[in-house]
Amino acid sequence: MHIRKFDFDYSRRMFMGKTLAGAATAGVLAPMWSELAHSADVSKAYPDELLSIEMYTKGKIKPGDVLTADNVDAVKDLLDPVAYKQVKTMGRRINIVESTKDVTRLYPAAYLDSTLRNKGKAKFGADGNVYDEAGKPWVGGSPFPDAKDANEATANLTLSWGRHDYSQYAIRDWDIDPSGEISYQYDFVWCELNCTSRSDGKVWNNRSDLLRLQSVFFTAPNDTKGSSFLNTWYYDQRKFPDLIGYLPAFKRVRQFPTNQRFEPLVPGITLFLSDAWSAGDPMQTWGNYKIVGRGPMLGAIGNKNFTGGSNANYERSVHGGPKGKTFHETYMELIPECVIVEAEPTGFPRAPVGKKRTWIDVRNGMFIAYVTYDRRGEIWKSFEPQFAQYSNDKLTIKDANGKPEWSWVGVISHDIQANRLSRFVQAKEVTGGYKSTYSEAGVDVYNKFLTPQAIGRLGA
């Protein structure tokens, strides 16, 4: 008979103790980041029960199983409330796979190298912003890989959304109405250029006052083609970004109210600027950050989510809902430890959001679920990403150094009060010939995508 020294109850007590103490150091059997100094394998930091869904559920769920309404209650405590509702009442299926133990498969290689190189150098200044030891803007990677509190965990999400110095996402979106039909279908491109907090340790164009430049422009259908927006983010997280846009109906570039970040960019879509990476607003426009929970979680963060090689444009099969079109396929694994961070929109006097909760995988500091609540405390929206290293048995996408790329592959964004859902994928290419890429090499991306003149040109 195999006697387990560290059973589920041991882990549960450990997580409860950490939450009550307000501490966020990762690991159960040993500090995770200390173990990672010797090996990329997280196995020594967690007991088997937190790395095996079969052991955790006492055989009720195992890798290869599919969560449905019939068995989802066995893992109800491992899903955010909206994902649980989708499976239980809306016909969603979730495929279960083995837990990822090799941490290098949960990061872009350059970002992980920068995180390890700069570990221990970050601090919060008196103004609430993150600085390095010399008091300069953060130099790259996660500033607090072994986050000790909710502010540190949130800073990891805020300073580098996509974890590349430049990211260009070709996005194909389908918006599902309450009847289960596709009411809108959009192609758009989302660009992110980090000016500071870069993995290469540089400051782009000497703009140490800026965190990032971020644009989004729609390329299809024709009645929306040309709608374009540019956010200029300051490094100072007390300041709202400058927001300009071009709408075909106005035929000019105009300034938009930057604090109205809880509205859809185009009709039908449930994506708000505030939703981006669960950190779509400057960090200090939200407040009262606190860790409200800690424990294992199911999250779509493994390689199985990358469809390259099986689908030429990286799209995904769909199922569920009244017409079988509501959800795309996702593959979730047992994540041994997540922290749940709660915050309130203190910088938005008229915000329709009362609070948000973000579930963060402590192995890589990335969010795996995000839920917002209205002013009454009722759940309003969920924003669930799927991530993967871009490598499978059919295709591997490599970075400039020959390492497999890593990024998000899809999102399910669900307004459960209106029962409207957007599902979108990071495609290989969208209308207009725009492709997903993670390098600015050889292209003047600033003048092409990230200036007011570029927004006007893309719109026109």
TrEMBL record:
A Pfam entry, by short name: DUF1329
Cited InterPro entries: DUF1329
Protein name: DUF1329 domain-containing protein
Record lineage: Bacteria, Pseudomonadati, Pseudomonadota, Gammaproteobacteria, Nevskiales
